[in-house]
Amino acid sequence: MTIQRYILRVMPLLAVAGGLLAGCQKNDERPYGVSSDDRFPTILSNPLGTATKYATGETVPVELQFAGQSAPLQEIRIFQRIEPASDSAVVQTLPASRAAYSRLKFADTLVANLVLPVAPNQARVRFSAVLVSTNGLTKTRSVSFRVAEATPTVRVASVTNVTAPAAAALIPGDVVRYSLLLNENGINLYPERPAPPPAATAVLFNNLDSLVTYVKVGTAAERRFARQRLPSAGTQTGAVTTVNFDATLPPGTPGQTVVFRFEAKSRYLGAPNVRVSSVTAAPLTLGGPTALAAARPVTLTYTGATGGDLAAFDLTTFATVAAAGAASSKDVAITSTANNSVRLQALNPTTGTPPPVPTRFVRVATGGAALYAGATLNSVRQAYITAPAANQVSILDNVVVGDVIIARLRGQDQYAVLQVAGINRTSATDVAVSFNIKAL
């Protein structure tokens, strides 16, 4: 009796639960079914461009790598959009039958030549490759370029003779430094957001490739003088660049003119394959060298522990300086004979206000005899100034017979060239050194 009463109480609950279960079954979504076997074509993950900028008219070859899926490919459409325009236009339609299968890439390959359209400098041009299957399904890959200026610019900013004072006559062998400004106001990359936009005067240039220098002497034909990569090492750029070109003036007779012309070049994906801009510098007129006086013999004698009164010499007055004389006059002196070696030293002071510049020497390592034999103010000055700074010293050790030494006197445009003619030892400490000296 108790069981029957329990069943009667539970039956209404079972009925409600059954209704809920029936409602759930009725509202379940039916599983998805395959409605078509069509599949989208595949573009492999190959880049569509090798740079971020190209100039108007350049042809950029881009290799597309792709594969059809359930349906063969019908064609490849190339769309172009020049921002800020919102619409794209078809610029090429390539039949898929032109594709070739690559065993190395395991894909069909097709080269599309993208021609950069006429557009303002720095404008963004977007190309889209759309693969169309015969089943109507498509796959798209896009790439954007900035429009750059193809032709570089070049300007001579300054001209300096680095081997002679500004007022000195130019002669063959002088080194003239041309400071060249290339791609004035140029930028290499467009600053994308969130970076601020470039200056209003900025120009996006193609990368600089090289600088070619030409020279014309007198009435002779112009010839190529030098070619250099820009920059000499590292990544090439289209940004504004300053180049210092040191030109050694070629042989010529006094009164002739020397004219340098500079060509800046950028590579171009088209014909011709370079774009060139040039500038011609102002003519330089050659003068004649300044002769030095005939060689004068000088002997320095070092005696005792301190050298004595004949061990120092003033090269501006050609007179011996006493041991007690002013150090500022002692351009060259024997200061040591230790270890059987002769030391020459400039004793000019290096402290004061303003600090004085001591006499400095350059020992000519190669061709010293020829330099001495044909020495002029110009050739001696050139040899000194073009020597490495580390070789311009105030102390020379181990002086030997035959040494040719250039002296620049007290930081001025005044030079002397000394040839060591003899070294005569009279004791363990005493020595006499003979020189032949040429100066103005």
What is the structure about, briefly put?
With 440 residues, the protein is mainly beta. The chain has helices at 2-27, 368-373, 377-385; strands spanning 42-43, 53-55, 59-67, 73-82, 89-95, 100-102, 107-115, 124-133, 138-148, 154-161, 175-182, 186-187, 203-204, 208-217, 223-229, 241-248, 257-267, 274-280, 284-285, 296-302, 312-314, 319-321, 332-336, 343-345, 360-363, 395-396, 404-408, 415-425, 431-439. It has a 5-stranded mixed β-sheet, with no helix packed on it.
Poorly predicted spans: 1-8, 20-26
| Helix-residue proportion | under 10%
Instruction: Work out the radius of gyration.
Output: 41 Å
Cα(first) to Cα(last) distance is: 146 Å
SS-based class = mainly beta
Estimated share of beta-strand residues: 35-45%
Number of strands: 29
Strand order of the largest sheet: 2-9-8-4-5
Describe the sheet with the most strands: 5 strands, mixed
Discrete helix count: 3
Q: Overall pLDDT, averaged?
A: 88
Tertiary shape? elongated
Walkthrough of the structure:
- With 440 residues, the protein is mainly beta.
- A hairpin with a 6-residue loop joins strand 23 and strand 24.
- The strands form 7 sheets. A 5-stranded mixed sheet has the order 2-9-8-4-5, with no helix packed on it. Strands 14, 15, 17, 18 and 19 form a 5-stranded antiparallel sheet that branches. It has a 5-stranded antiparallel sheet with strand order 20-29-28-27-25.
- The longest helix is centred in the N-terminal third of the chain and has 26 residues.
